[in-house]
Amino acid sequence: MPAQSFEARVRRQGGIAIVDLHGEINSFADEGLSTAYAEASSQNPAAILLNFAGVDYINSTGIALIVGLLAQARKSGRRLLTSGLSSHYVEIFQITRLADFMSIFSDEASALASVPTPAS
Amino acid sequence: MTTLIRNFWQSLIGQSKPAPQATVMPVVQRPRLPPKPSHEIAPNDPLVAYFQNARGSVEVDRINLDSPAVRALKAAGVRMTVPLVSQGDLLGLLNLGPRLSEQDYSSDDRGLLNNLASQAAPALRVAQLVRQQQLELQARERLEQELRVARLIQQTLLPKELPSLPGWHVSAYYRPARAVGGDFYDFLYLPDGRLGLVVGDVTDKGVPAALVMATTRAILRSAAQRWDAPGRVLEQANDLLHPDIPPKMFVTCLYAILDPQNGRLRYANAGHDVPYCRSSSEVKELRATGMPLGLMPGMSYEEKEAILAPGESVLFYSDGLVEAHNPQRAMFSFPYLRTLVERHTGGATLIDFLLAELAEFTGANWEQEDDVTLVTLQRADTGQAATDSSQPGHAIRDKEWRTLAEFTLPSEAGNERLAMKEVTAAVQDLGLPPARLERLKTAVAEATMNAMEHGNQNRPELPVGIQLLASETVLAVRVTDQGGGQPIPDPHAPDLEAKLAGLQSPRGWGLFLIEKMVDEMHVIRDGGHHTLELIMYLGGDNNASAKL
Fold first, then answer.
1. C-beta neighbour count of B9 within 10 angstroms
2. What average pLDDT is seen over chain B?
3. Chain-centre distance of CA B317, in angstroms?
4. Which CATH architecture has domain A6-112?
5. What tens digit of pLDDT does each residue of B108-143 get?
């Protein structure tokens, strides 16, 4: 099996940092995911949205990485959202109870809509 | 001078081998007459001792001994005899009748004869040794050939494959003694998915035992298809075997029928070693009375029953194990075997454990006295689903299993994706709903990762084996690693709060996920391997969502 492909890009929309994830979330994604999360949180957003629309595989190591991100977010009192998870991974987020700690939205728009816009 | 030397035989007193004998030859009166049969000199004949002290040619009339050999010499018309002695052994006699000239033998004649004897004896000795070696070699070759035939018969008839019963693990070990005893075992596939299990031992060794074993096996196979009760099967086998079995031979044999659906084991025993059933709390003997097969017609066989709960196992064995001796001639024994079965607490399989103990007991230079046969039947320690009483043994109700795919992968990170692809392709005709296919793929990926990382320590040269079996209603995926050292822990729900609070590693989701993705998960330990068996029910109402 060739080296795994994973990419994470951070963009900002309103007060939310969106991390677009692409590829496979497994042990190879560790560094990329941490870097992206650090970048996202450095912007001090109201929430961080993990956009899984481009992700086709998450294994148990990937779950552990997400647990790690969630632990960081909780420590710094930051809300973590997800969007774009396939129904299978929504089920896995429910089974692992990650869904109890991060809001799951079917798409980016509904995730963004859930975060109150700060008064400008 | 008319002389003849022939058929001198072997040496004398004081040897442990059958006493070789010197012979007395008749003197041929006329050169062309065929020789009369030679005479053997008994090792205790006084002539033997006489020739150990007297050297050189001797006139027979001057030998004053009460000796059958001397009488035989005289009767044969021998006048002069010359002992052929080599390395202190009397090999034979060079016998001469009267000279044709009717004159006595001269001192020149005697000198010539003594000279001849001193040269002929060592040559004769060499010839004898060569001949002896040839005979021994021929005998050895005959024996080897017989052993080859016996071994071939046994190996041909022993099962080539172990039964694949999801939820159960069957192991077998057979090691013939050099002389090849009459041990055998057999697996019979019976209606309704039941498994017949035979372990037996024919008295005697070599080809005769192998032939009786072959006959017994055939009779049992046929009787097992006809009769449902193990006792009846043995009864039938006994009655059929009895008229034809050679005298003084018989067969001890245990026959058991397992219903894998509920763990019910019915058995009857024709005088075979009593199997041990091991549960978490105790070791029980599975006793049932009955005479060995082939001894007497019209025997009946007691029938008993045991229920094997998850995690329980049964050991069937032959006396080659319990009757093995250590260098001090102490026997391995039944009590010791029972103690070992009690002591075995997992890790290596019971068979590996017992063989290691046997090797330690007998020491390195053990010459195996008898065949050693071990067969174990273990009900898998199930995960939560298999103990769910609403679906008792659902996975193992079926009879026909077909192999959908079988492959191995090197233990390299990321190869679980290959496993997912292969499995997806292999199950495409089963009609799994998409959501269940996704769950299966995740379970297979996690089981493969588990095998690569924990079982095989990420060593690429150690493969992960994946086997897919399907019956009409059940799909079983078996993922096997090569690292028997580390037991697979029981799956448990990770403590997410503790992980989020940084009190626990964020990892440790694999087994939990697998168990949630499939309908049943079994852990099977087999010596140097672990197998995770993933069960998915097919069709009907079995496509409910994952277990939350």
1. 16
2. 83
3. 11
4. 2-Layer Sandwich (3.30)
5. 888 999 999 989 989 999 998 999 999 999 999 988
pLDDT one-digit tens code per residue, B440-470: 999 999 999 999 988 888 888 889 999 999 8
- Give the residue from chain A lying closest to B438, CA to CA: A88
Sign, CA dihedral B113-B117-B120-B124, equals positive
Interchain CB distance below 8 Å, A64 and B505: yes
What are the φ and ψ backbone dihedral angles of A49, each rounded to 5 degrees? -105, 120
Q: Which residue has the higher pLDDT, B22 or B372?
A: B372
Give pTM, 2 decimals: 0.51
Is residue B146 in a domain? no
Cβ distance of A101 and B412 shorter than 8 Å: no
Residue A120: the pLDDT is: 41
Per-residue DSSP letters for A35-73? Answer: HHHHHHHHT--SEEEEEEEEEEEE-HHHHHHHHHHHHHH
Residue B493 lies in a domain: yes
- pLDDT higher at B326 or B384: B326
ipTM value? 0.93
Report how many helices (DSSP H) and strands (DSSP E) chain A contains, helices first. 4, 5
Written as six digits, the tokens of A114 are 């859930």
- Enclosing H/E stretch for B220: helix B206-226
Instruction: Choose among B254, B352, B350: nearest CA to B311.
Output: B350
Same domain, B478 and B508: yes
With beta carbons less than 8 A apart as the criterion, state whether B477 and B533 touch.
Answer: yes
Closest in B435, B438, B446 to A59, CB measured: B446
Partner B contacted by A99 (CB < 8 A): no
Between CA B237 and CA B244, with CA B239 as vertex, the angle to 5 degrees is 95
Of B412, B415, B509, the CB nearest to A64: B509
Among B519, B545, B546, B543, CA closest to B433: B543
